[in-house]
Amino acid sequence: MVLYVITGVLVAILGVVTVVMATVGIMGLANILHIARCGECGHLTVAVDAEPPTSCSVCRHPHLVHPMATLAHAHVPRTH
């Protein structure tokens, strides 16, 4: 019985991920939404125009994405 529940949950998760990825792909084909690499750090980010952004939320707020790395490097001043 537990195996059926686990299988059902995995199928539901896979279905949701598939629908989201298909929606993002369709929006990209319609030039509404673009997945681009950040020009500064190289992370994938969402852009509304075809040009990749010069910076992203990871560049602007690194402590939100990598809090432990930020604490470990707190003594190093930022260069930009």
First-residue to last-residue Cα separation: 56 Å
Compute the average pLDDT: 81
| β-sheet strand percentage | 5-15%
Radius of gyration: 18 Å
Number of H/I helices: 4
Integer count of domains: 1
Strand order of the largest sheet: 1-2
Give start-end ranges of low-pLDDT stretches.
Answer: none
Largest sheet: 2 strands, antiparallel
Q: Please count the beta strands (DSSP E, at least 2 residues each).
A: 2
Which structural category do the helix and sheet elements fall into?
mainly alpha
Helix content: 40-55%
The run of helices and strands is HEEHHH
Morphology: flat
Explained architecture:
With 80 residues, the protein is mainly alpha-helical. The chain has one domain. 52% of the residues lie in helices and 10% in strands. It has helices spanning 2-29, 57-60, 62-65, 67-72; strands spanning 34-37, 44-47. The protein has a two-stranded antiparallel ribbon with strand order 1-2.
